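Quick entry, no commentary yet.
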Amino acid sequence: MKRIRKGDEVIVTTGRSKGQRGHVLRVVGDKLLVENVNMVKKHQKPNPALNQSGGIVEKESPIHLSNVALYNPGTGKGDRVSFKNLEDGRKVRIFNSTGEAVDI
C-alpha cells in the first residue's frame, strides 16, 4: 500500500512550486503528476494525424515523491502518514499529527 495515491490532495514542501496544493493525477514509480504544480513550457510539433496544433504548450511535469506531503484538512498543513490495521482486517492510512484516518 502506498502512502500517496491517485486522487489525494498534496502540498509541495520543497522546490520552486513550494506551498502549492493540488490533486495527484498519476503516480509513476517514485514520481507524481500533480495538477497545476511544476508547470513547464514544452515546444510541441504539430501532428495532423491526431489533429494537434504545434506551438508552446504548458503542462505539468512530474515531481518526486519526497518533495510533497499529504494535505491534512484538519490542520491545514502537510502531514506524514502511517498505517494501521483495523479490527475487521482493513489497512488504513492515518495522519501522524492527529491520528485521524485519511480514507474510510
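second:
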Amino acid sequence: MIVRTLKDVREEGNEVHSDGWISRRYLLKKDGMGFSFHETIIKEGAELEMWYKNHLEAVFCVKGKGTITDLKAGKTYIIEPGTMYALNENDKHILRGVTEMTVICAFNPPVTGQETHQPDGSYALVEEQEA
C-alpha cells in the first residue's frame, strides 16, 4: 500500500513549479502502478499550450474555472468542478485558468517526475535515473 501526504510530496521534491502551474506528483513511474497521479494548480490567467504526444492524460477539475481548447477541432470547453476531460488522442490543446483551478490528473505511461515541457508543449519519454 502506498500512502502519501502533501508534506511527503514536497519533502521528496515532487512538487514542481513552472510558469502558470504547480504540479504535485503523488504517484510516479517508480511506484509501479502503470500510471502517474498528480494534483495540479493552474494559476489564474495562465494560458498553457500543451501537446502530450507521448502520454495519454485524464483530468478531473475539483476547484476553480478554466477552459480547454482542442486545437485540432477548434472547439473550446468550459472546465469547472465536476468536469473531466481526457486527452485520448494525444490532443494538442490550450488550457486557460479563468480563476485558479485545481485538477487531478493521471498520465499513461507514468511520468518519472524528471520531465519538463519541451518547446512543443510535450513531455519527452524519460527513463528513471539510477541512483
